[in-house]
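Run folding on both entries below.
>entry_1
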Amino acid sequence: MVSATLPVGCRACRREAVQEVLRSFGEDIVNELVEWFNQMDATYRADLADLRELNEMNWARFDAKLEQRVSEIRSEMQTFKAEVRGDLKELKADIIKWMFLFWAGTAFAGLLLRAVSSN
């Protein structure tokens, strides 16, 4: 009679141990204890399902926030990249301008020296 209400794990117990518990505590107390364990197991299984659902919702929320932040960072990186390219173009133009001025100055000084040395 008790073996029908015992959970699966207890059915594998040795029969002598179950008989000893029945003799020591009585069938009513053992049945009540087994019923209490089964209720606790059902409660924990329900809580586990709730926790799993809560975890999945939290993960979805975290994933959405992460995706939003990654897209914000990508946007900022694109803006930064455009600014750096603009700065590099300005720097390149300045370098070319200064190179031309130094080249023109050097050529003019060379021509001036040649004119002075030939006189």
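>entry_2
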Amino acid sequence: MLANHVSYNRVVQQTMTKSVLRYVAAAALVFAIVYTYHTLIRVNPTIVALTFLLAVLVVSARWGLRHAVFMAIVATLTFNYFFLPPVGTFTIADPQNWAAGPASDGLEIHDLVFGQHAG
């Protein structure tokens, strides 16, 4: 009977390890997208933003809201740093980008929150 018993600590540790690995995988996916579009293929920022959105939605569907919100924050920061002028800073020079950033983040979070409740 004791051989079939799984300790609570082992289950929690396995769950925590799995969760941390998912956060690392979400961040790695963001950096893979940045590397691809910043180094290998030059595209406009709209394509990058839509790729980030698609990746965040996939992570949300597979792993849940926490991992997707983390990924959305990392994607927003890397998008700002690597693709919005002036590139290489967290400063946004164009006022249109100030309006587009929070609006797209709000849409992502709205889709994540209400997408979780729909399914």
